[in-house]
User: Fold these one by one.
Assistant:
Number 1:
Amino acid sequence: MNQQNFPVQVAPLESCREPGPEERSMLRKVLDRVGQYCQSRSLFVLHYCTGCGAIELPPSMTSRFDLERVGMQPMVTPRQADILLITGYLSVKTLKRVILTYEQMQSPKYVMGFGSCTINGGMYWNSYATVKRLGDYIPVDTYIAGCMPRPEAIQQGFLDLIERIDGGRAVAWKDYYRNYDRYLGHQQHLFGRDWLTPTDVVGEAAHYRLAGDGTLGPHTALLDQYAGYHQAWGVPREQYAELEASS
Amino acid sequence: MIPSLDLLLALAFGNLGLMLLAGRNPTAGLLSMILYALQGWVLVMLMPALAEGAASGLAFQVFGWSLSWELNGLGWFFAIITVGAAFFSAWFAAGAWGVQGTRSPWAFHVTLAANVAAMLLLLASRDLLTLFIGWELVTWAGYAMMIQSGGPATRAAYKYLIYGVAGGLAVLAAVVLIQVQAGGLGFAAVAAWMPGISTGMLWALMLLLGVGFGIKMAFLPFHRWQAEAYGESPGPAAAFLGAISSRMGLFGLLILLVHFIGLARLDELLLPLIGLDARILWMWLSALTIIIPTFIALKQNDARMLLAWHGIGQGGYMLLGVLVGSELGVAGGLLHVFNYATYQAVLFLVMGAVVYRTGTAHLDRLGGLITRMPLSYVAMLFAIIGLAGLPPMNGFVSKWMVYKALLDEGLPLLFVAAVIGTLGTILSVFKLIHNVFLGQLRVEHEQIREVPFSMWGPMIALSLIVFITGYMPGLALDLVMVAQTSLGFAALDYHLGGFVTDTGNLNMLAVVSVLLLGMGIGAGIFLLGGNKSKRVHQLDNYAGGHFLTTEVRYHYSHHFYAGLLRLIGPWYITLIKRLEGGIAALTDTLAAGSDGLYRTAYTPILMLAATVLGLALVL
Ligand code: SF4
């Protein structure tokens, strides 16, 4: 890992560590509690529906099962969404889009894998073009098993997720920042060494004070190496200046 | 130096001479700025003397006609806007723009000085003859200003010239008619003579003068020339022309309709068959002048054309306000002259700056400039809020006054028409700022920078005026009242923050303060409550999961408002095209008819008829 060359200044690791749930002050605990309660009751879902299972969502969302009862609504952009719902199988091509969309969401963000295909490849296990385990590429909070799961199962999955958000236990998104290098390694394994998104995950890790030992590594170093080939993908300008200065 | 009209005219013509000699000098812009500032100072100093009229010592006899000039309150009001607009335009051209932005800074400075001098002469006229002289000078000076950039501008300016000369001839005909009938041309004499004349004569005069002045103001149905002529002019020239030039037509119309004929007489002039009176006719023409050009502006693809079309539409509010005739309406209409000049100048200057940097004003070829030209963006933002007539900018105050006056006087349909115009304005100014400053920055504009101070200075200064006179409209109403009382209307009861009438009041100090407070609370929550924002790159944007590249255009700018235009498009075709076709056909027929008369061999009979008619008029 070449810290020197890396464009984003990552804050010293000590200051990055979030105090554990037990170390927080009483006031902070109360505030967090209120915050988590509110958050779990107002969730926007971004649907990434490429697989077959999408057909189960209309009944879940509309009057029959009516997910709006629990404060859930569809959202059209990742910036405003809280939950990324991925229905079913992902080909290599769509996985790229899913990762981009996931990275564009603001934290805290939750991912829901829907259907057996996201868990282990499901009935496409033998396919050369589909992804076996979604959890290798982005952190997943909840899986809903089934091929395909019925609306009741979806509802149960959402209720589980709500409960975990309420309890402060849905923290998979932090893992993406803490162990970005591992996730990126899996992505690069699939997409090639020059895989790059226009987002700035390392910068965000520092921004959320979640940079850890696993944030940077050999894989993130490759990002740096290939950034120049993808000028058009818009690595932030300031970083270019630093990159050029350092090279 | 004792401030007097003589000094003012001497400064104006001195400036013209100086620019003719030294217009090529790099300091010419600064020099002319100083001279415009001096003219402004003289005008301010003249303010107390206006009640009696500030006469000029300049007087001479030509063929037995005595010519002399005198500035009254109305002329003073327009003059101060003229000089102000010239000052800011000259400032814009004083630095880098004069060196690189134009083919000939000399031509710009000379024509600007000539326009100001001609306008001041026109505004200081005390009789119809000096008015006519001023009118012709203004027409030709405007032409000279428009042809500067060559190419399509020449064609547009030529079109203007044809309209302008036709208007001038109509004014001349009216002047001759009045001289023959009334025996004098002084404004006071004409106003005294007017009440006694026959209805037919009055219609004839109103038609001739109305057409003459209306053309300059691009009043419907003479609106076709203006947008092209102003839009094709270079940045600061367009700012000056757009801000004040066509208001000379309004000045003429005010003298004609209010001073000469009087609103009460207009009410008595009934149209045959329809039963509408002449005032309502003028008001509806104003309303159509608001609506039609505004919606034509909506579909323009060139930013300058869009602005120029709005200029035509905004003129309608001014005349509409004055024709309401209540203190509030007149004040609103006149205040709109001032307000409009401030923000229209900003908008044209901003587009001048954008053209200077990017070389185009085409709304499909710009976008995302906010990151490169933030000051220009702020200036444009202030100005479009003004143009759209929304608080806290000054355009809101004057439009509000016109609306309120219309409702108070029981004219709800005209009110609706005015509001429809405002709706069109809001839509199209959003298109303007969206397509130029927001959205995706084009690759070819990556490297551009903000314009230098000489260019953003006047934009920002003017946009601050837009805000301040919106916050404290009393400042501008001080000027307006001079014109309003000079026109013979009672003064409006106003204070620094707004006005008070029997039916309600407006206090912008309170309105804007509440608005700012609300924004402040929002900003406080955002900034003090742990601002967690993080800047992202422009291409880090959601497009259904697609990876965006600079090669892909995802800034939706072409054919903006397609849906709306599909709805109202047929109206254009049926209404406007047919109306224009009708007018063109009428002109053709008349031309062909007179041509036929001259060509066929009835010359002696025609001569006889003309002589008899002439004698009948004179005797
Ligand atoms: S889990 Fe079943 S239903 Fe869902 S995408 Fe895979 S194959 Fe289709």
Number 2:
Amino acid sequence: MNTNGTPDLSAFDGIDFDEAERRNVVIIGTGPAGLTAALYAARANLEPLVFEGTQPGGQLVTTTDVENYPGYADGVLGPEMMEDFRKQAERFGTDLRHGSVTAVDFSERPFRLMVDHETPILADTVIISTGASAKYLGLKNEQRLLGRGVSACATCDGAFFRDEHLAIVGGGDTAMEEALFLTRFAKKVSVLHRRDTLRASQIMQERAFANDTIEFLWNTVVEDVLGENAVEGLKIKNVETGETSTLDVTGFFVAIGHQPNTELFKGWLDMDETGYIQTLPDSTYTNIEGVFACGDAQDHVYRQAVTAAGTGCMAAIDAERWLAEHGAIDGVRTQTEYHAAPAEDSDGGMAVQG
Amino acid sequence: MADNAKYVTLTDANFQDEVLNSDQPVLVDFWAAWCGPCRAIAPTIEELASDYEGKAKIAKMDVDNNQQIPMQFGIRSIPTLLFFKDGRIVDQAIGVVQKRELAAKLDALASQAA
Ligand SMILES: Cc1cc2nc3c(=O)[nH]c(=O)nc-3n(C[C@H](O)[C@H](O)[C@H](O)COP(=O)(O)OP(=O)(O)OC[C@H]3O[C@@H](n4cnc5c(N)ncnc54)[C@H](O)[C@@H]3O)c2cc1C
């Protein structure tokens, strides 16, 4: 699919870019992709400027154990791992700032960015690592009751529901993981799934089935969330029988997957029909020269921390080479030089023996 | 502005005095150390505490160390920001909110107070 429509530039009306800060590399987002891009760009002396957005550390700050990130032999807590990522990027001079990029103008270089609607920034290259966010069902009263019993993050909000009856919708691994997590607090967790089989992996299914606190309501869809100021129940429907009923729950967790955070770039970048940014094969190049994309924002296949970090590294190298080719910096360093680059502090480089 | 922050640290014990009995409007940020989005708005809260000094009280309550008040006010997610005036909740915001949105809410309350 191609860029749809003309980008809206009204956010730039009356904004003076004459005095705006100009940077070699601006990185949008601080999940595994953005912080790895920052680490590499910082070590290449590009002094990357990084905006954290509304979720510093990215999606992994919403989870507990990460068991499959190489290097953590005993597993690690998501928020702790992202703290490590941040420290490592900052150690080499990453300029990390609060704020979200709220508008982009990729029509000419340097690119123009607006941060939090008010601060103009100029960027010679932009690395997009905005990741993905939880999807909601789009029910009439879902957003109104968000934070009032509706949640897309069991690990963030579960502890506020001690001894209550909760519902969770979804049939994948994340849904099972979250249901299991919720059993630590809830007296009962009802998993609602629109089919009669789960998508979740065998091992996760078995764990969920074995847990007495979890009940499964098959062939069931949620029609609306009930309650004035807080969740008081769900209107549910059995799709086999067509019967509707009320489920008395005080919490409703949504675990139906994620969508890429790419709204901001619509009209500029090529995306597939679900909004994932398309990159040129074997690279992080987008259809706009000097704009690179990495991590979950451009990956609907793997969506792992390690692949996000991998493409983050690629984006930084792509940006460095691109800047060198376009005369903005003195020249690219070889792979060997990457590894030899000393750290700002004294314990040196990336050496890992010890 | 540094660390000697201008916001008030709330506990279950001082909530009545600091919030419900306050003659200024109060913004209460319910947060916890492990909450990423709470960290994201923390600087905004600190800035507001400076900006509104004398006009509104900006306060933070750690929901890990204090459970009674968060439960009483039905906190289900953090960050939740509640705006109090004359001992009653008059406005709220949930999740990461832009500074200017919060400032607009505070302006509305502070002007009524004057
Ligand atoms: C509950 C859960 C458990 C998971 N467990 C695992 C696991 O065990 N192992 C594993 O490998 N993967 C796991 N994943 C997947 C993994 O979290 C993602 O693949 C990975 O985080 C993607 O990294 P990312 O850097 O692309 O984006 P994200 O982590 O999504 O980070 C996006 C970043 O962009 C920022 N941002 C967005 N928009 C803007 C903007 N406009 N301006 C500025 N900043 C912006 C956000 O604030 C955030 O910092 C899990 C995911 C979830 C939700």
